[in-house]
Design a protein that fits this description.
By secondary structure, this protein is of the alpha/beta class. Helices cover 35% and strands 18% of the residues. The chain contains twelve helices and 14 strands. Helix 2 packs parallel to helix 3 and helix 2 crosses helix 12. Bound molecules: flavin mononucleotide.
């Protein structure tokens, strides 16, 4: 049995597994390990200086000759980052946090450089509009996803609705896939690959902070919350994080609005350049980003699939395990009368 889908051929990968661009944790070592194992590794390039973008591309290429992609969050101008990636020969570009219209330079420039364009959506209508605008691959993100969450529908009803809306354009399922059973399920829904963030956040190569990893490994499926709580630096945007002392204190205070929350403006740690990290800062506290602080109180972005992850493993082994599990599930189902 093979799980290969037409999208695997289009992207030049072996297995229908994409490592989600998990912000600062998606380092070259992670993306390269996933690509080397036959999945698609992704780098998160949002807001980086051109030389940092180039350095990450070079570091990844030094570790793998296989395809990998880049991701840009379009809530602010990312044209410089896009240009740098395309000039350096990137052929797979994913966008998040903006709907794209026909004639959009983010699509046209990528296509002019022979790159395929992926866009994350949260509904069938958004998927249809994206395809009309020229997007090549749709990422359907369910509300159970970790990190910033664009839509409000969960993966199980979202994926088939999006597949029906845009077929034969390939759809990738994001949100809630923690193991091979989830991968088999989204393939059954018509997705051509699974897009996993939380699972790869806990890969050995990820730059997740050890405290975040420890809390995530001990968490169950009920231990995350969807809120707009961590809004410093990215206001008014829903995200899913581990329930921690910051979240609990806010709930206990009856969820007051920004400006009146417990500990507002307090310093909870420091970035590597010495700047203070305010409570409610939106960013992921990775080891490369922060020098000190109380990590437990920070934005510990994680999805509901966190309850399915019990150990840290090399990313390549995660890819191999996901495929073996999904095949076993599908073989078992086929044998069931
Ligand atoms: C720690 C973390 C950081 C993320 N950063 C990004 C990002 O930079 N760009 C993006 O498009 N999505 C980002 N996401 C969302 C993922 O792309 C994806 O939709 C999500 O992880 C899927 O759900 P899962 O966590 O259940 O696998 C992030 C998710 C997590 C958990």
């Amino acid at each position: 049995m093979t799980l290969r889908t037409p999208l695997c051929g289009q992207l030049g990968i072996e297995h229908p597994i994409i490592q989600a661009p998990i912000g600062a944790a998606a380092v070259p070592e992670l993306a390269a390990a996933v690509s080397e194992a036959g999945g698609l590794g992704m780098l998160a390039m949002t807001g980086l200086e051109p030389e940092q973008v180039l350095q990450r591309l070079e570091a990844t290429r030094a570790l793998t000759a296989r395809p990998f992609g880049v991701n840009l969050i379009l809530r602010a101008d990312q044209r410089a980052q896009l240009d740098t990636c395309l000039e350096a020969g990137v052929k797979i570009v994913s966008y998040f946090w903006r709907l794209l219209e026909s004639g959009d330079p983010y699509i046209d420039e990528a296509h002019a450089a022979s790159a395929v364009v992926m866009l994350t959506v949260g509904s069938a209508d958004e998927a249809r509009r994206a395809v009309d605008a020229g997007v090549d691959i749709i990422v359907a993100q369910g509300v159970e996803a970790g990190g910033h969450v664009w839509g409000t529908v969960s993966t199980l009803p979202l994926v088939p609705a999006v597949v029906d809306a845009v077929s034969p354009v390939p759809v990738v399922a994001a949100g809630g896939i923690g193991d091979g059973r989830g991968l088999a399920a989204v393939l059954a829904l018509g997705a051509q690959a699974g897009w996993l963030g939380t699972r790869f956040l806990l890969a050995d190569e990820s730059h997740v902070h050890p405290t975040h990893a420890m809390l995530a490994l001990g968490a169950t499926e009920t231990d995350t919350a969807y809120s707009k709580l961590y809004d410093v630096g990215w206001p008014d945007s829903p995200h899913r994080t581990l329930i921690n002392s910051t979240y609990r204190a806010w709930i206990e205070a009856h969820s007051p609005p920004t400006g009146r929350r417990p500990g507002e403006g307090e310093t909870v740690g420091h970035f590597r350049d010495g700047r203070p990290i305010p409570r409610y800062f939106m960013g992921l506290p990775t080891t490369t980003r922060i020098s000190d602080g109380d990590v437990e109180v920070m934005a510990l972005h994680s999805g509901q699939s966190v309850g399915l992850v019990h150990e840290r493993l090399p990313a390549g082994q995660i890819v191999t395990d996901l495929i073996a599990e999904a095949k076993a599930v599908l073989t078992g189902l086929a044998a069931t009368r």
